[in-house]
Amino acid sequence: MEYYILFLLGGLFIGWFIQHLRTQTIRLNFELLKEKYNLQEKFHVESGEKLELKLKDISQQIFEEKSKRFREDSLRGMELMLNPFRERMTEFQRKVEEMHLVDTKDRLKLHSEIERIVLTGQKMSLETENLTRALKGDVKLQGNWGELILEKVLEASGLREGEEFTLQGRDLKLKDEEGKHQMPDVIINLPEGKHLIIDSKVSLVSYERYVNGGEEEDLSAFLDSLYAHIKGLSKKSYHQLDKLVTPDYVMMFVPIEGAFTLSMQKDKELFNYAWERSIVFVSPSTLLATLRTVSSLWKQERQTKNAIEIARQAGALYDKFAGVADDLDQMQTQIRKVGDSFDNLKSKMLTGKGSLASRMENLKELGAKSSKSLEIMKE
């Protein structure tokens, strides 16, 4: 009996112990499930908040980067387009001001230049008269002196050696039909590649004697020397040289106004005789007037070229401006495309149907806890 009671008590204890173990196991399983649920809920909440913040950061970062890049590209593009335009406008204004200044100065100097021609001619005539008397009949010295007077006339005309005139045909290598070298005293360059030729080797020995002694035979000798020089100059045919484009005449320079006037007065046929042989008489005053006309032609030529250049640059400036306008239109199109791209990105991430933000809100509605909300969803 005693053993039976002990056996019964032992069974009850074992049963109680097994039931206690089951209860503890169930409680532990419940606590584990609860902890797992809490951990999952915490994970969803934290994930939702982090994703929300991440989306906002990404959106803001993309917007700022796009805006900054667009501003930089726009400023750089505008600067690249407008700098050539600004430079051309400055150059155009400078050219116009230069032409206006030159034109104004030329008009103001016109009357003074005419007076200068007259005074220079009178002064040179007086100098030549005095110098001729001092030469004492030296033919070679008179020839050299005639060239010197011609150079003075050229200098007074405003023409430049090597530019508007050439002495002795330097570097031109002129040859006649027989292949002989020719060296005209002066070659005047005209616009459009044309030329004038001047000869200055007139002998005035007989003229000096006639002026001092007044003998008719000295006058005849002087006129005969002019005829002889005309014949010799005509045979050279300077006006037919291949490399020159000239009128059908050569200018024969008489360095003394008095000698020129005397020859025209005493022999009425002398001028026609020379003209028939493609020669024209010129004195210091008439040659100076002719060369001043040539100088004016060159000024007009340069002004015309400047005007053409200004017109060309103005056309290029207009084309450049039109190009800038086209570039501005293209830039406006690009700006719109950037705006459209940003709107599409914003729609996909925040505002559009099925956006990432709406999906995050769905997670929140399913139980994800969050202390914040996406403001964009309230708009």
Tell me what you see in this structure:
The chain is mainly alpha-helical and about 375 residues long. The protein folds into 2 domains: about 1-85 and about 335-379; about 125-305, no CATH class. It is about 75% helix and about 5% strand. It is built from 8 helices and 5 strands; from the N terminus they run ααβββααβααβαα. It has helices at about 1-135, 140-155, 205-215, 215-235, 255-265, 270-275, 285-350, 355-365, and strands spanning about 165, 185-190, 195-200, 250-255, 280. It has a 5-stranded mixed β-sheet, with helices on both faces. α3 (about 205-215) runs antiparallel to α4 (about 215-235). The mean pLDDT is about 70.
Q: Secondary-structure blueprint of this entry?
A:
Elements: H1 2-135, H2 139-157, E1 165-167, E2 186-190, E3 194-199, H3 205-213, H4 216-236, E4 250-253, H5 257-266, H6 270-276, E5 279-282, H7 284-351, H8 356-365
Parallel strand pairs: 3-4, 4-5
Antiparallel strand pairs: 1-2, 2-3
Helix pairs in contact: 1-2, 1-7, 1-8, 2-7, 3-4
Structure summary, number of beta strands: 5
Q: Which structural class do you get from the secondary structure elements?
A: mainly alpha
Largest sheet: 5 strands, mixed
Query: What gyration radius follows from the Cα positions, in whole Å?
Result: 54 Å
Tell me the strand percentage band.
5-15%
Helix and strand succession?
A: HHEEEHHEHHEHH
The domain count comes to 2
The residue ranges in which pLDDT falls below 50 over 5 or more consecutive positions are none
- Overall residue-averaged pLDDT value: 72
